[in-house]
Amino acid sequence: MTAALTTAQLTQEHRPTLDQALEAIRTRAYWSPHPEHPKAYGGESEGGRRSLSVAEGQAAFEALRGKRFELDQPGTDGWAGSEVSPFGAEMGMEYPHPDIEVLLPAMRAGMPAWRDAGPETRALVCLEILARIGARSHEFAQAVMHTSGQAYMMAFQAGGPHAQDHGLEAVAYAFAEQTRTPGAADWSKPQGKRDPLRLRKTFTAVPRGIALLIGCNTFPTWNGYPGLFASLATGNPVLVKPHPQAVLPLALTVQVAREVLKEAGFSPDLVALAAERPDEGIAKVLAVRPEIRVIDYTGSTAFGDWLETHARQAQVFTEKAGVNTVVIDSTDDYRGMLANLAFSLSLYSGQMCTTPQNLLIPRDGITTDAGPKTYDEVVADLAAAVDGLLGDDARAAALLGAIVGPRVQERLEAAPGLGAVALASRSVAHPEFPDATVRTPLMVKADGARKFWEGADADAPYLSECFGPVSFAVAVDSTEDAVALLRRTTRDKGAMTVGAYTTSPEAERLIEEACLEECAQLSLNLTGGVYVNQTAAFSDFHGSGGNPSANATLCDGAFVAGRFRMIEVRRPAE
Amino acid sequence: MTAALTTAQLTQEHRPTLDQALEAIRTRAYWSPHPEHPKAYGGESEGGRRSLSVAEGQAAFEALRGKRFELDQPGTDGWAGSEVSPFGAEMGMEYPHPDIEVLLPAMRAGMPAWRDAGPETRALVCLEILARIGARSHEFAQAVMHTSGQAYMMAFQAGGPHAQDHGLEAVAYAFAEQTRTPGAADWSKPQGKRDPLRLRKTFTAVPRGIALLIGCNTFPTWNGYPGLFASLATGNPVLVKPHPQAVLPLALTVQVAREVLKEAGFSPDLVALAAERPDEGIAKVLAVRPEIRVIDYTGSTAFGDWLETHARQAQVFTEKAGVNTVVIDSTDDYRGMLANLAFSLSLYSGQMCTTPQNLLIPRDGITTDAGPKTYDEVVADLAAAVDGLLGDDARAAALLGAIVGPRVQERLEAAPGLGAVALASRSVAHPEFPDATVRTPLMVKADGARKFWEGADADAPYLSECFGPVSFAVAVDSTEDAVALLRRTTRDKGAMTVGAYTTSPEAERLIEEACLEECAQLSLNLTGGVYVNQTAAFSDFHGSGGNPSANATLCDGAFVAGRFRMIEVRRPAE
Predict the structure, then answer these.
(1) Looking at the domain that runs over A7-25+50-83+90-183+200-320+554-572, which CATH code has it been given?
(2) Which of A17, A389, B183, B327 is 20 to 30 A distant from B401 in Cα terms?
(3) Transmembrane stretches, by residue range (chains A, B) (predicted)?
């Protein structure tokens, strides 16, 4: 039997990390306590924590396949599981299916003690959960890979240390927010010659109620951890409803959280899993339950809008679809620009909410350090850069990963109907998983004359999100038009990211002003090893929460402040 | 012509105050820069600012009566005004009625420069606005008195320095929230033996859009300033839509804000007034305009719920109706308790969102320092305490103020139909304003047996808000039942305040736990000069935002964090 976790142990191990995280969100300099190099794992760390090596992670994953995933949750009325790896293999796990009439009250029962533990203990318990997840990063990598279709390296980094960074960032924000009000205060109001009025006031951060995390297929941990840890750290139990095709990474997370909560003396039912049967639509049922007071969601705009409209009893945080734009005005590093964009378009087959979709290029061409380039030349050179990057099948597969599901594949196959194909998509044979669907990105040429996108009834294909490895090389009449089109799609459809390449101070000013006014995060002139589709915890904001692609950013004060309330009790001072 | 305000002047005068406010919201100790003694005003302060005396304030108010209130706003298509003082006199002011198709674009035009000014300059400009309002506190007192019906002293204190405190508190929270992210950061990510990845990141707090303040009749400045200043300090223009019967206090506010903004070099149109014609219902039109992105509202639950449901394009902050409870279990200061409650029930004729309504008293009586008291004795003694407090007409009028409007009077007149009257309401002759409707509070006895309030179809009159000078002395079967009833009304109808009197640690624990779980602010054993219906800026939270009476508290991080977004621009480091 594992020894119980004491507050002293937790403080000694995790308080310094919490303090560093608090400092990092203040300075927004680079920081991470979670190594992203795969070889940093395996064996024992300085602190004495054992972590799994690549091979151990794979063995742990294999041991889970084809079995029931036991969580010992109250209110289990059967088992559900239908995951199929995008790399071809059946997963075969079954997960507890909840009887919510039993599970929700059990989750609520743990709330008072968790509330009374206070912000610091809650943060430290969350950090212990993250540390144990971190030690199993290679096991999580397998789980993320075989549910999302991400290639191993990306599944490991984005699904492991980067997701843990984002969880920790949310814990830091939650701790800072809850502790900006002191636990108690003595209030003494002067009354001239009379005695002052004196009160003793206590302030307690109280949870809203049960939080519901609705997970997504492509980034179950990266997109799930901010909401999960923000809610838990602010005192709310968390019910995790994973995407039916991406259960394992979050089931493992729930398992670790329950284990740590129990060892720390709290109810393990503060975190529970709600797996669903095919086509059950359990999220819609859970989302409007009165016990559910916080919802975090990543997915389609349609369901995100439904949640915002109907789950009025809850604080709803959504990340939805958007149309990400890159404005190409000019550059002093043409090769660097092409290489950077080729990588951004290829990474995980463009199945990221942050992947560029619309590349806006002046019809008359651009100026570059390699001389003037026509629109056609830019498009051809970018296509060639993608082809070059993905010329070798093994390397291509390691970058592209697998197509996550049939809908993305259908969109990709329909894309040639949207315009002239500037870059065709080809199938890549995966060296290890022959059944995986691996496809290179496709680029379509499109006319960006104003008549195609101005006005309420404009219906150019690039005005909507086409999620997956499809991008549009849009020939615009000028950089001013590019900025106007950027404004239009950002205002109407939202954007998680905007990129731009320019050497012109005037164009830069125009683009920056558009992003400030339309609330979009901007990356300028990226030509090296940072890509527009990547955001770093503690420093970057993922989305802005100010355009239709998301109503929240990961992570800021607004993301945590509404998850709890501060309750005051005032008494005459003794 | 007034000299332009420079940043240096603003910094010298107001930065120390801002710093003290930031410290106060951290410690929550007593603090206020706005004197609440009427005699502190008149003549010149140490800083050289002239303030109006009582007589000067009255003269300034009289000079406004019967005239057009010029604001020099763009888009004025006529004049509107229908205020009648609850103290009897016609006001006769007319205010600009907006052509919103002209006014809204003019307000938006001022946004970029106001955004670019940054959080500190915005805060300092807000503090200058508050300081000029403060110097005219006696003029505002007249305006608040003759619109709300508050007696002069309360109109002066609550409508003047206390409202200014709450505005300043919101500015402090807004400043703190916007500056927790630095303006810029250098990010350098190690890459082993290769050069680090380096980015320069800038972060700009950007406004949501135009904020709409929907004012209330009873506390136009106190309830209006938090939202107004929180929105303005976070970069949003603010359109002020006052209650048609309480325009003047907010029109004066808009006038001062426009004057200061202009002197500081910004567009005066960042703050504008939207007066309406009788029964025009302009709030409903404005609330769903796409330009409106933030709404602050105080008023009925029906319209508050309508706003939350329909104004989906905006961040909506509402304070609505509630049922405030006092649990009377036992006391060691019976006379102090009676005096304190009598004052709370009488102040401003109970027309406060924080006035107690349900007094829950065990049917079998309570223990006190004056011996055991039966339910009937407690009720009779409390009635006598109110009678004693209000025995003298002049003193009564100074405490009660006037009934704000016919609806409150109708409810008061209907109240004897709700149960046996334990304390009858009487008319008080106002020594100065013979036409004022001044009424003492009424208390009805009610049966608090569980059968009257348990179950979904229970309809005891005390289960709903009866806004105005009506309270219920509810005979409950036990303190446990009192707590259960408190939970029921708080959960279903909300509560801005909860009070309790007890000497029993067990009862105290029960009550406190109920307030923590139902998210209500609790005042325990108040027997002196602090009253359950009063909250002090910088220290107390007004409402919790966690029960149906309000979706926000005044003031915390959540109240300001959603009013702006943080936009990042990242570039390769040079």
Answers:
(1) 3.40.605.10
(2) B327
(3) none
* Contacts by A299-308, CB closer than 8 A, 24 or more apart: A299/A214, A299/A216, A299/A243, A301/A465, A301/A548, A307/A214, A308/A551, A308/B312
CATH T-level assignment (fold) for domain B51-320+554-572? Aldehyde Dehydrogenase; Chain A, domain 1 (3.40.605)
Contact across the interface for A112 and B177, Cβ inside 8 Å:
no
Chain B residues whose beta carbon lies within 8 Å of the beta carbon of residue A190: 30
Q: Return the biggest CA–CA distance within chain B.
A: 88
Q: Is B525 on the interface with A (CB under 8 A)?
A: yes
- Residue B1's pLDDT is 37
How distant is the Cα of A182 from the closest Cα of chain B, in angstroms?
6
Q: List chain B domain ranges.
A: 51-320+554-572, 325-524
Residues in chain A, pLDDT under 70: 1-3
Fold equal for B51-320+554-572 and B325-524: no
Tokens of residue B509, six digits? 């624990």
Q: Residue B553 has what DSSP assignment?
A: -
The answer to whether residue B117 scores a pLDDT higher than 50 is: yes
Q: Which pairs with CB-CB distance under 8 Å and at least 24 residues apart come from A34-41?
A: A34/A134, A34/A137, A34/A160, A34/A161, A34/A162, A34/A164, A34/A165, A34/A168, A35/A161, A36/A157, A36/A160, A36/A161, A36/A162, A38/A138, A38/A153, A38/A156, A41/A135, A41/A137, A41/A138
Q: Flag if B540 and A308 touch (Cβ within 8 Å).
A: no
Looking at residue B180, what is its pLDDT?
Answer: 97
CA distance A265 to A318: 32
CB B125 within 8 A of CB B10: yes
CA angle at A408 for the pair A405 and A411, rounded to the nearest 5°: 145
Alpha-carbon distance of B264 to B260, in angstroms, equals 6
Dmax (CA) for chain A in angstroms is 88
- Written as six digits, the tokens of B243 are 């209650």
- Tens digit of each residue's pLDDT (9 = 90 or more) over A59-89: 999 999 999 999 999 999 999 999 999 999 8
